[in-house]
């Protein structure tokens, strides 16, 4: 993710109507003049999750890269926040992107990865 605008086409209200944005400091994509509260991920991550849970009832957008439900922050958040309280908008996963670039089916990409890349 290179800018806030790069994700707004996915779900415009998920980024424009929020009062708080949570993002990784390295990929911080909000313009400096954006007045919304900004939180960055902490270590341990549990501290950030607690900060998000404290904002329950307030519109909050969590920005992350990749597929949030494939070992991502979406899975982590569902342990503390009901999925009914969230809208999850995943980005394409690495295997899907590779298949699209190569023109291969997803099953072929995964087969190649499993057979040729992973150690036996």
Q: Could you list some keywords that capture this structure?
A:
single chain; 120 residues; mainly alpha; 2 domains; 3-stranded parallel sheet; 3 strands; 38% helix; elongated
Would you give an account of this structure?
The termini are far apart. The model has no long low-confidence stretch (mean pLDDT 76). The protein has two domains: 5-89; 93-120, no CATH class. Helix 5 crosses helix 6. It has 120 residues and is mainly α. It is built from six helices and three strands, in the order H-H-E-E-H-E-H-H-H. A three-stranded parallel sheet has the order 2-1-3, with no helix packed on it.
Brief sketch in words of this structure:
By secondary structure, the protein is mainly alpha-helical. The protein has helices spanning 5-8, 12-16, 45-54, 73-78, 94-102, 106-117; strands spanning 20-23, 37-40, 60-62.
């Amino acid at each position: 993710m290179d800018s806030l605008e790069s994700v707004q086409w996915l779900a415009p209200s998920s980024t424009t109507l929020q009062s708080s944005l949570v993002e990784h400091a390295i990929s911080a994509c909000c313009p400096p003049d954006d007045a919304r509260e900004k939180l960055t991920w902490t270590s341990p991550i549990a501290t950030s999750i607690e900060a998000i849970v404290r904002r329950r009832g307030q519109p909050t957008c969590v920005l992350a890269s990749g597929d949030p439900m494939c070992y991502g922050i979406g899975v982590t958040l569902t342990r503390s926040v009901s999925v009914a309280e969230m809208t999850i908008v995943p980005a394409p996963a690495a295997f899907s992107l590779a298949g699209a670039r190569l023109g291969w089916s997803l099953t072929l990409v995964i087969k190649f990865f499993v057979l040729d890349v992973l150690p036996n």
